[in-house]
């Protein structure tokens, strides 16, 4: 026997069902994509420097993956604006690596050389950057650059090529962000750490990890440390015009 509901009751039930579906959709986790790029665009390392082709390839990857944040290593300051256009003119910032005397490291074209961040955000965040306390004896002092928003903090870094120094810098970067992460803020730390995930051989990048962070990498030296976000997948994208692949991490956030 088919039960016929009065029209007012049926309408009320449909509205209630729609409200539940709408609330469920609103509370569903949102995808958050992080793209890590080391572009070898300073001009000093001629083995991997490819000029304008590198920036075009980076723009192509950004357009294809549509990340919420891009972490950039080995770029020149003036590389940031053309890459920001691929992010819908999002908010970007840059921090130069430093010489032992504190002056900026320079690209071969005279521009400042270092690390950048671009967020797909129409509003500016609070920027802070710094030089690690532990450094090797080389001519480049390694730095980090971060942007903090009310609901998220993201950082980019490029660590020393000396293993024990890179490990100390990695531990310092995670420690610097840990209080925010423990307080529940979604946190992303990306970069070229010059450390591998190799439990059986020497230094292991996982040794600088600490709760509540988890780490995902490209199978080599690029990694993303994340807290208070879910993990969906890792994608390693071959790049023709730089000596590192692109590392694409797909996360979720409430």
TrEMBL record:
Gene Ontology MF: a single term: endonuclease activity
Region forming the signal peptide: 1-28
Source superkingdom: Bacteria
Record key words, sorted: Endonuclease, Hydrolase, Nuclease, Signal
Ranges in coiled-coil conformation: none
InterPro entries given in the database record: Endo/exonu/phosph_ase_sf, Endo/exonuclease/phosphatase
SUPFAM superfamilies documented for this protein: DNase I-like (SSF56219)
Record domain Endonuclease/exonuclease/phosphatase: where: 53-198
Record-given protein name: Endonuclease/exonuclease/phosphatase family protein
Organism: Sphaerisporangium aureirubrum
């Amino acid at each position: 026997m088919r039960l016929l509901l009065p029209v007012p009751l049926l309408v009320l039930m449909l509205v209630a069902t729609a409200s539940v579906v709408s609330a469920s959709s609103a509370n569903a986790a949102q995808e958050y994509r992080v793209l890590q790029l080391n572009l070898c665009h300073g001009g000093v390392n001629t083995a991997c420097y490819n000029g304008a082709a590198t920036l075009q390839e980076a723009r192509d990857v950004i357009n294809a993956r549509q990340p919420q944040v891009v972490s950039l290593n080995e770029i020149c300051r003036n590389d940031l604006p053309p890459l920001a256009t691929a992010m819908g003119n999002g908010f970007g910032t840059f921090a130069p690596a430093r010489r032992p005397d504190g002056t900026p490291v320079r690209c071969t074209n005279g521009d400042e050389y270092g690390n950048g961040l671009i967020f797909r955000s129409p509003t500016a965040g609070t920027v802070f950057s710094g030089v690690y306390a532990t450094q090797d004896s080389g001519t480049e002092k390694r730095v980090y650059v971060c942007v903090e928003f009310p609901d998220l903090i993201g950082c980019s870094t490029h660590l020393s090529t000396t293993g024990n120094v890179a490990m100390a810098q990695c531990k310092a970067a995670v420690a610097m962000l840990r209080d925010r992460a423990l307080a529940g803020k979604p946190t992303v730390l990306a970069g070229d750490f010059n450390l591998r995930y190799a439990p059986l051989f020497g230094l292991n990048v996982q040794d600088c990890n600490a709760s509540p962070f988890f780490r995902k990498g490209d199978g080599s030296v690029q990694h993303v440390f994340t807290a208070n976000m879910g993990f969906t997948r890792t994608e390693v994208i071959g790049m023709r015009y730089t000596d590192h692949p692109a590392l694409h991490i797909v996360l979720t956030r409430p």
